[in-house]
Design goal:
Blueprint: H1 8-25, E1 28-32, E2 42-46, H2 53-65, E3 68-74, H3 75-80, E4 89-92, H4 98-109, E5 115-119, H5 138-145, E6 150-159, E7 167-175, H6 184-205
Parallel strand pairs: 1-7, 2-5, 2-6, 3-4, 3-5
Antiparallel strand pairs: 6-7
Helix pairs in contact: 1-2, 4-5
Length: 206
C-alpha cells in the first residue's frame, strides 16, 4: 500500500482546490450540522458522488473539526494522481489480501485523537440521488477494532435550482463512540435519507 504523507506543498494544493477552486465551481456552499467529537479521533463516512468529494471533506474538516485528515482511495487512482498522497491520501487495493494492510493502517490512524480518517463506503462514484449507500466490509473491520472513535456522518448534494451554477449543501452529524459494527450501514442510511428529504424540501420551497 501507499502510506499517506502530509507535506507543505500538498497542503497548498488541498487548500487551493478546497478553497478557491471549490468556490468557483459552486455558486454557494452551505454547511448544516452541529460540531462535536472534541478530543476524539473521527471516522468520517461520506457519499461519493463527484471528483470534488475529497476536497469537500477537506473544507469541512478545516471549518469544523480541525483534525489532520487522511483519506482512503483506490491504489490505481492514487498512482495516477500522486500529488494527493502529499495531501494525506493512502491507498487500498480492494478484493486483495493487501486491503487488510490498508485497514490496519486506518485503525492505527484512528488511535490518535488528532486525526480524522475519511472513507467512502460505496467504494466508487455513484449518483447523489442513490436511494441507498451500500457498505463494504471495511467499515465493520474498523468499527470492531477502534470502538473509541467518534463518527462523522456526511452527505453532500449539488443542485442548480433556477441558477446557472449549482450550490453545494454539506450535511454532517457527529455520533459519539462506541462505534457499532452491526449498525453502521443502517445508521448512515437513516442519516442519508433524512438529508435527502431535507434537500428536496429546500428545493421545493425555494
Amino acid at each position: 500500500m501507499i502510506e499517506a504523507r502530509h507535506t507543505v506543498s500538498g497542503g497548498l494544493v488541498a487548500d487551493f482546490f478546497s478553497g478557491f477552486m471549490l468556490g468557483r465551481a459552486f455558486r454557494e456552499i452551505r454547511m448544516h450540522g452541529t460540531p462535536g467529537g472534541d478530543g476524539l479521533p473521527l471516522l468520517v463516512l461520506a457519499n461519493h458522488f463527484s471528483w470534488w468529494d475529497g476536497f469537500i471533506q477537506y473544507r469541512l474538516n478545516g471549518a469544523v473539526f480541525d483534525r489532520t485528515l487522511y483519506t482512503m482511495m483506490l491504489e490505481e487512482q492514487l498512482r495516477r494522481h500522486r500529488v494527493l498522497n502529499r495531501c494525506g491520501c493512502f491507498s487500498v487495493r480492494k478484493g486483495t489480501r493487501d486491503a487488510v494492510e490498508s485497514l490496519r493502517y486506518c485503525c492505527g490512524l484512528l488511535r490518535d485523537a488528532r486525526n480524522a480518517v475519511l472513507l467512502f463506503p460505496q467504494g466508487r462514484i455513484e449518483s447523489m440521488h442513490a436511494q441507498r449507500i451500500g457498505f463494504g466490509s471495511g467499515v465493520r473491520y474498523i468499527a470492531e477494532r477502534v470502538p473509541g472513535a467518534g463518527t462523522v456522518l456526511n452527505a453532500n448534494f449539488a443542485d442548480y435550482g433556477p441558477q446557472r451554477k449549482p450550490s453545494l449543501d454539506i450535511y454532517y452529524e457527529v455520533v459519539p463512540p462506541p462505534l457499532q459494527p452491526d449498525s453502521m450501514e443502517e445508521l448512515y442510511g437513516d442519516f442519508y435519507k433524512r438529508c435527502r428529504a431535507r434537500q428536496e424540501e429546500a428545493l421545493w420551497n425555494g
